[in-house]
Amino acid sequence: METEDNSAIDVTHPRYESLMRRKRLVDGYKQGIVVSEGLIAHGRGEMFDYLLGETTLPVSLISERVAAAALSIANRSVISVNGNVAALCPEDVVNLSDIIHATIEVNLFHWNEERASKIKQVLLGNGAKEVLSENPDKSLEGVHHDRGKCHSEGIFSADAVLIPLEDGDRTEALSKMGKVVISIDLNPLSRTSLAASISIVDELTRAIPNIIGFSKEFVGKPDEAKEMLKSYDNVLNLRAVYGSIAARFEKLSE
Ligand code: ATP
Ligand code: MG
């Protein structure tokens, strides 16, 4: 498959969006933003997207709406960005952070100051005013490795964190710290999806624009947002995701 430039990807290809995502990741890899493990993680996500039918499930629209509600009423919300996220949709991340007044923080599973700095530059280049990145001064409780690194003004002290494509270990640590943890992960069986408070099972570049749309609806409506959050049950929502996938396979097997 050609991936050297845009012209190599045919816009009429039925999976054009998917090919473009791969291209963005490969470009990010060449720029030193994405690590090779990130490419593998993307492949795992793609596999689950096939199971979903490469579309947002109606039940995921619910978790995306609830995520917008939770973020809109948080005292301190943070969007956590890794290499894949920066390569796939930096503009959307910045847009969302503006609407919900969230801090953007670079969080890397494979910590590297130089890569963190490059990711920050990408976000600043896409309009971010401030990005927490190099020199993290804290560690997530219970995660004593480099991968626990974070900022005291960022996810360490936040009450709500949006963690797209996060590792299960860190998600569990954030949940134990008592935060509202909102994951975006195509794998409904991952430890991340199981440990989050609001598990969005959807593709990142579909999920973030949806959350942006819902966030606009909650501006100036904290009571509505609180109600929405109160009535949400993440276990039931995850079960509905499993049910949707099972129903799709039932139908295909008829
Ligand atoms: P866990 O650590 O939660 O048990 P894992 O080890 O399989 O899961 P990680 O590599 O830690 O996964 O995290 C990456 C996750 O991101 C994967 O579960 C993958 O399904 C998901 N993922 C990758 N690309 C995307 C994407 N574009 N949109 C949504 N999810 C994605
Ligand atoms: Mg993992």
Write the layout of secondary structure elements.
Elements: H1 16-30, H2 36-52, H3 58-73, E1 77-81, H4 83-88, H5 90-100, E2 103-106, H6 113-125, E3 131-132, E4 138-139, E5 149-150, E6 160-164, H7 168-176, E7 180-184, H8 191-195, E8 198-200, H9 204-218, H10 222-230, H11 234-253
Parallel strand pairs: 1-2, 1-6, 2-3, 6-7, 7-8
Antiparallel strand pairs: 4-5
Helix pairs in contact: 1-2, 3-9, 3-10, 3-11, 5-9
Residues 41-42, 44-45, 48, 165, 167-168, 184-187, 190-192, 203-204 line the site of adenosine-5'-triphosphate (ATP).
Q: What would you say this structure looks like, in words?
A:
This protein is of the alpha/beta class and 254 residues long. The protein has one domain: Phosphopantoate/pantothenate synthetase (Rossmann fold, 3-Layer(aba) Sandwich), CATH 3.40.50. The protein contains eleven helices and eight strands. A six-stranded parallel sheet has the order 3-2-1-6-7-8, sandwiched between helices. Strand 2, helix 6 and strand 3 form a beta-alpha-beta unit. The longest helix has 20 residues. The protein is globular. The relative contact order is 0.16. The mean pLDDT is 95. It binds adenosine-5'-triphosphate and magnesium ion (MG). Magnesium ion (MG) binds next to loops.
Alpha-carbon Rg, integer: 18 Å
Low-confidence stretches: none
Bound molecules: adenosine-5'-triphosphate, magnesium ion
The main β sheet shows up as: 6 strands, parallel
In CATH terms, the superfamily is: Phosphopantoate/pantothenate synthetase
Widest sheet: strand order?
A: 3-2-1-6-7-8
Mean pLDDT: 95
Q: What is the molecular shape?
A: globular
CATH architecture: 3-Layer(aba) Sandwich
Quaternary state, please? single chain
The span between the termini is 34 Å
What's the helix count? 11
Helix content: 40-55%
Whole-number tally of structural domains: 1
CATH class: Alpha Beta
The name of the CATH topology is Rossmann fold
Strand content: 5-15%
